[in-house]
Amino acid sequence: MKLLVSAVEPSANMHLKALMAHMSEVLLTGIFDPSLGAPIADPKSLSVMGFIDTFRVYRYAKRLIAQLVDEAKEVDKILLIDAPAFNIPLAKALKKRYPNKKIFYYILPKVWAWKPSRIKLIERYVDVALSIFPFEEQFYPHAIFVGNPLMDEIKEYKNSPSIQKKIAFLPGSRKREIRGLMPVMRQLRTHFGDYKNILVIPHYFDDADIARLYGDVSGFVLYREAHEALLEAKYAYVCSGTATLESAIIGTPLSLLYITHPWEFALMKYLVKLPYAGLANIIMYFAGQKAMHPEFFQDEVNVDALRRAYESHDAFAFMEDATKLRALLGSGTLANVAKLLQK
Description:
Elements: E1 2-6, H1 10-20, E2 27-31, H2 44-47, H3 55-71, E3 77-81, H4 84-97, E4 102-106, H5 118-125, E5 128-131, E6 144-145, H6 150-153, E7 166-170, H7 175-189, E8 196-200, H8 207-214, E9 221-223, H9 226-232, E10 235-239, H10 242-250, E11 254-258, H11 262-271, H12 279-286, E12 295-297, H13 303-312, H14 315-329, H15 333-341
Parallel strand pairs: 1-2, 1-3, 3-4, 4-5, 5-6, 7-8, 7-10, 8-9, 10-11, 11-12
Helix pairs in contact: 1-15, 3-4, 4-5, 9-10
């Protein structure tokens, strides 16, 4: 089978690499990491430019979409992964040229958070919508829930609360997130003086990046693997994002933290109509369950509030909620996706 793939983000390529282990006799073409074959475009050509709404990027994306549409002439099926700003226009162009070619979309646009107008676009231009959250079928009438890929990636969960004096700090992977959260994390660390304070740093940051972005890290033990740190930690302070869901799945109680520009936060509050930001909390909310962990934004991200969150957490109740969460997220995601693609 010849498969056209659009995997423009690093996370999409991680999912694609894992997916290929479940597929045989597949030839890839399109946009993906060169380690997987011979793409017509390297995803770095988009990420280096920073996929924002500029005329330069628009022109480049338009040319790239035209290339992909031409390339699709000889393929059997099409797989789009995440990145709706690029992949929805691509799906539209592909469906217009090849109405009978089957288009799969894996990791759907988060329309339950914002831009619900994308629902109609997915319904119109995508043949098989592959959902990774159990509640998304409420929004996408024809979606197939395949399970969440984190359930394949995370190999070990906690069976009981950690008793070791270890706190994990995960300030995110984006420069602005890190610079926003590190000052309060440094202050907070001093209140856990007899604890092992673990700071998780993405593997692609070198020593120069660490010095520039994180500042003084002398009071922390540096880890490169988030799952390892979360398994060891008694509690975690985590930047809003996928890592909050990873912590919840593993069974490590946490506080979600988020600091951004005031105008951006105001816009986010206006656009996003959900009561929670954390994925675990959102999943539990749609399942009719209580929130799993506290969330702190802007000025709420202060030492006193974060200390109180740690002191008041109930590790045993969190473990029970983590078990419920894992049951909701399913398993065998990659095998399910591979089976549908090879049908």
